[in-house]
Amino acid sequence: MALVVHKYGGTSMGSVERIQNVARRVAKWVNAGHQVVVVPSAMSGETNRLLGLAKEINANCADMSPREMDMIASTGEQVSVGLLAIALQAIGTPAVSYTGWQVPVRTNSAFMKARIESIDGVKVKKDLDAGRVVIITGFQGVDPNNNITTLGRGGSDTSAVAVAAAIKADECLIYTDVDGVYTTDPRVVGNARRMDKITFEEMLEMASLGSKVLQIRSVEFAGKYQVKTRVLSSLTDPDMDINIEANSGTLITFEEDENMEKAVISGIAFSRDEAKITLNQVPDMPGVAFNILGPIAAANIDVDMIIQNQSKNGTTDFSFTVNRAEYNKTMELINSTVAPAVGAASVDGNDKVAKVSAVGIGMRSHVGVASKMFDTLSHAGINIQMISTSEIKISVIIEDKFMELAVRELHQAFDLENEVSTDAV
Length: 425
Ligand code: ADP
Ligand code: ASP
Ligand code: MG
Prior knowledge:
By secondary structure, the chain is α/β, with parallel strands linked by helices. It has 15 helices and 18 strands.
C-alpha cells in the first residue's frame, strides 16, 4: 500500500464527464489498496472567468483589492472538490472534501501570490485511515488573520506537492493535459520530445523560465522535501492498467543518470509575461541599483533580469524586467518617484518583450552553447535585447512577436527532437 497525492489541473476537471473520469481513476488507485489525497484545480476557464468579473467592476482591482480577489478566485477550487467528492461517493468510494482553511493550509498574507508556510496533516491522516479519499482545494490557503489567500496562477501544483510533503506521501502524481514534460511546449513545437526523466535542477529552471507545466514553487517544494513527483496525462483511459499508468509520464529525479549527463540542452522554455523598463542616463554613483530596485522590492514587485551599462560621461543606463502583469504598477512607481529621485534623464518601457531560454545541466561541461544560441537567433533575424546566464541556462529577451519562431529555431538547432543532444554544440 502506498500513500499518494494526485493533482488534477483545470482541463482534467473541465467538465462533469471529466470529473467522473477523475473519480474512476482515483477509485482504481483506492481499489488497488492505496491511500489517495486528491488536489484538484478549478474547472478550466473558471479562474479567468471569476477574475474577469472583478475586473469588470474595477480594472485596477488586483492592485486595490487583492484580498477580495482571493476571496473570489478561491471559489473555483471549492466547487471542484465538492463535485469530485460527489462523483467518488456516487461510485461507492468514500470521500470528503476540504477547503484550504479547513485543513488548514497556512500561508503568509501576500494576497494573489501567497506562500505556503505549513500544512496540518492530522485531519487528513485521520480520514485516510478511516478509508476515505481526501480531496483538498488546490491554489488556496489561509493567512494568520484567517483571510483566504491564493498561491498565484498555476498554484494547485504547489498545493499538491506541499500536501505530499506534509503527509510524507510516497509520490505526488501531477495529472495534466499533456503526457509529461517535453523538451519544449508541445503546443508550440510539434516535434517536441517527451522526457522519461528530468533532473530536479532542470525542472526548476524550466518552470522558473516560463514552462507552465509546473508552477515553480511546486518544484521548489519537491526539492526541499525530496517529494517524488511525476507529471502524467489525465486524458488516458481512466481504467488503464495501474502499473503502466504509475510508470508513465515524466519523473523528476534528484540524481543525474548517465544519459542525462550527455545531454547538453534538455529544453527550451519561454515566457510572454515579460516587460522591460530602462532608466536612461542615471548619474553613476554608489547606490544606484539599490535606489532604483529598493522601492520596487518594497512594493512587492519581483524583478527578474537586470543590466547596468558601463558608465559614460558619469551616467549609466539601467534596465530590468518585471512580470508583465506588474508593468503598469512598476512604471507608475518609476515615473512618479524613482526616476526623479535618482536623476534619470528619461524612462523607456516596453511590455511587448518575451524571454526565451535554453536549459541543460550539460552546459556545465560544454562550451559554445551561448554562441550557438546567439548564432541561431541572428540567422533568424531576431535581435537580442538582454542576456542572462547561469551555470545551466541562457536566457534572452527579444521582441515578443518573434518568440515562437525563436523557440522553434532553437529546438531544431539543438536537435532536441532526437534522443540525446550530445553533439549539439
Ligand atoms: P493544468 O491545468 O493541468 O495545471 P497547465 O495548462 O497549467 O495544466 O500546464 C500544462 C500545459 O503546459 C500543457 O498543456 C503545455 O501546453 C504547457 N507546457 C509548457 N511547457 C511545457 C513543457 N516543457 N512540457 C509539457 N508541457 C508544457
Ligand atoms: N485555478 C488556478 C489557476 O487557474 C490554479 C491552478 O489551476 O493551478 O491559476
Ligand atoms: Mg497548471
